[in-house]
Structure formats: C-alpha cells, structure tokens
C-alpha cells in the first residue's frame, strides 16, 4: 500500500467540482488519488519540475476511475502528503506513465 494523502475539505470540494469548471471533464473522487498512490507502477516526481512551490506530482492508475490520474500534493515538515489537485492524465503525463 502506498503513502496516504490527506485532503482538507476545500481540496476535496475542488477536485470533485472539476467537471463544473472544465467542459467534458471528470470530477475526481477523493479515494481515486489514494488508488494512484497504491499503483505498483506509480511514477513519482518529487519535486515536480513544473511546480513553483515545490509540490510533488504522482502519476498512476486508479482502479475505480478506470484511468490514469495525475495527483499533485505537497509534503509538510513531518513528511506527510497533503493533496492539492488531481485530474485525468493526458499528453506527456500519460506518455510518462
């Protein structure tokens, strides 16, 4: 089993409402990113080279979502992961996976 990602209520509301912000997009259920972390073929970019705040990018398969997802999280000073965002992988992220 992979590392646990902690999500605060605002972050959960944000990933669930993805479909409201982007046409034809998918809202992300909070258990899906945890399935990504449990993927034996998980790709972890720590830190994410695209991040301006030093967050990490995880790319892996979510069984419940039936697709590969990108999960963005940051590590606190204790090393715990906190979810920031998640979305279905496309383009370069999907190719990397």
Describe this entry's structure for a reader:
The model has no long low-confidence stretch (mean pLDDT 94). The protein contains four helices and five strands, in the order βαααββββα. The two termini are 19 Å apart. The chain has a five-stranded mixed β-sheet with strand order 1-5-4-3-2. Helices cover 26% and strands 30% of the residues. The protein is globular and about 35 Å long. The chain has helices at 9-16, 18-21, 31-37, 91-96; strands spanning 5-6, 43-45, 56-62, 67-75, 81-88.
Classify the secondary structure makeup into a structural class. alpha+beta
Output mean pLDDT: 94
Percentage of β-strand residues: 25-35%
Q: What percentage of residues falls in helices of 4 or more residues?
A: 25-40%
H/E element string? EHHHEEEEH
The tally of strands reads: 5
How is the main sheet built?
5 strands, mixed
Alpha-carbon distance between the two ends: 19 Å
* Unreliable residue stretches: none
**What is the overall silhouette?**
globular
Number of helices: 4
| Cα Rg | 12 Å
Which strands sit side by side, in order, in the main sheet?
1-5-4-3-2
Descriptive key words:
single chain, alpha+beta, 97 residues, five-stranded mixed sheet
Set out the fold topology:
Layout: E1 5-6, H1 9-16, H2 18-21, H3 31-37, E2 43-45, E3 56-62, E4 67-75, E5 81-88, H4 91-96
Brief write-up:
With 97 residues, the chain is α+β, with helices and mostly antiparallel strands.
């Amino acid at each position: 089993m992979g590392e646990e990602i902690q999500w605060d209520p605002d972050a959960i509301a944000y990933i669930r409402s993805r479909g409201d912000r982007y046409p034809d997009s998918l809202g992300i259920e909070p258990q899906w990113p945890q399935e990504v972390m449990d993927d034996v073929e998980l790709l972890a970019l720590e830190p994410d080279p695209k991040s301006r705040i030093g967050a990490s990018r995880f790319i892996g398969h979510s069984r419940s979502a039936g697709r590969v997802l990108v999960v963005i999280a940051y590590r606190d000073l204790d090393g715990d992961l906190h979810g920031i965002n998640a979305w279905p992988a496309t383009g370069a992220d999907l190719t990397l996976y």
